[in-house]
Amino acid sequence: MTTVAAYAAPAAKAPLERTTIERRAVGEFDVLIDIKFAGICHSDIHQVHEGWGEAIFPMVPGHEIAGVVSEVGPGVTKYKAGDRVGVGCLVDSCRECENCKAGLQQYCTGGGVGTYNALDKNGEPTYGGYSQKIVVDENYVLRIPDGLSLDVAAPLLCAGITTYSPLRHWNAGPGKKVAVLGMGGLGHMGVKLAHALGAEVTVLSQSLRKKDDGLRLGADHYHATSDPKTFEELSGTFDLILSTVSAPLNLDQYLTLLRTDGAFVNVGAPEEPIALNLFSVIAGRKTLAGSGIGGIPETQEMLDFCAAHGIGAEIELIGADEINEAYQRVQDSDVRYRFVIDVATI
Fold first, then answer.
1. Where is 16: in which H helix or E strand?
2. What pLDDT does 260 receive?
3. Which residue, 79, 93, 99, 130, is most buried by CB atoms nearer than 10 A?
4. Burial state string for 192-216 with b = 16 or more CB within 10 A and e = fewer than 16
5. For residue 76, which of 25, 33, 137, 15 has the smallest C-alpha distance?
6. What pLDDT is stored for residue 271 in this prediction?
7. CA-CA distance, 318 to 20, in Å (whole number)?
8. pLDDT of residue 132
9. CB atoms < 10 A from the CB of 174, how many?
10. End-to-end CA distance of the chain
């Protein structure tokens, strides 16, 4: 085992603090990664605050990990020391269920293992990317193409794949009108990816404060949802609405913006239940759906797509001693658009 420095929340809602954790010895099929950058996801805050249910503490968050391989086990065939790699939201799954065999490990029915706030197959808690090193089975490690800088690639391991997967599944592309609801850490990636896929992209945001950014990142149109005229003007417009918002919404209102057979897909995960009048989906044969991250094959596809199109996250690089301040700023929507920790500062 190896002792490494990390930042952890010692208890629910407690500030994160510097500590040390133990990483397992490198096994036959394991990859040891020197973490260079770790993104801060709103999911980290939800879990540190137990907003999604009871959690495991101490907790080392972080599932947007970019680094360099420093050691591999004797059975590893996919990676070697010096390779540029990433780790996303999963570090293992059952590998035997129908979804795992189809490359949909994010929907593993036999017990997927999260990168943090989870128990591995030995019953030991997993610790995430706010740390100097991590040991991961080679089958859950992603290759980061040379065309992507590690700092802007880190958020792609969650924010990137979380938006790419539904855009691909619901066929965003030429001839399709796609709205991205929310212009934050997830939303700005949704705009970039939908644009690169060839869709006509509209941003729906509370205000026009980030309009210039939205248009710069690839949006064709930008509307404020605080303006009632927006819902009148855009009624029946979109083939797909990708909601990245983690606060409760008036779904009935937003479903009016879909065309017949349109889909409203949630990737933001509010902590509270949301009400719905079913006539909002019955009228127009509309779909209300959700989407998780992506499986390992699709995540690699996304990284390759981003490299080919010059897409990285818009980031603010911070030191580890700024993590707690960054958490508050994420809650205040005061980041453009993803905080990334320089792990050399841990």
1. none
2. 98
3. 130
4. bbbbbbebbbbbbbbeeebbebbee
5. 137
6. 83
7. 20
8. 98
9. 8
10. 19
Angle at 174 between CA 156 and CA 304, to 5 degrees: 30
Residue type, 339: F
Diameter over CA atoms, the chain: 63
User: Backbone dihedral region of 284: left (phi > 0), alpha (psi from -120 to 50 degrees) or beta?
Assistant: left
For residue 125 the two structure tokens come to: 């808690």
SS3 112: coil
SS3 at position 145 = coil
Instruction: Indicate the DSSP class of residue 126.
Output: P
Tokens of 4: 């490494």
How do 287-290 and 258-266 pair as beta strands?
parallel
- Which two structure tokens, joined as six digits, stand for 208? 């026009």
- Measure Cα distances from 206 to 183, 194, 213, 289 in Å: 9, 20, 14, 22
The H or E element that residue 84 is part of is strand 84-87
Tell me if 189 sits within 8 A of 155, measured CB to CB: yes
Query: In this structure, how many other beta carbons lie within 10 angstroms of the beta carbon of residue 101?
Result: 11
Q: How many other C-beta atoms are found inside a 10 Å radius of the C-beta of residue 65?
A: 32
DSSP secondary structure letter of residue 43:
H
pTM of the model: 0.96
Q: For the chain of 346 residues, list the mean pLDDT of each consecutive stretch of 10.
A: 96 98 98 98 96 96 98 98 98 98 97 96 96 98 97 98 98 98 96 98 96 98 97 98 93 98 94 92 97 97 98 98 97 93 98
**Domains of the chain, start order:** 2-157+313-345 (3.90.180.10), 160-290 (3.40.50.720)
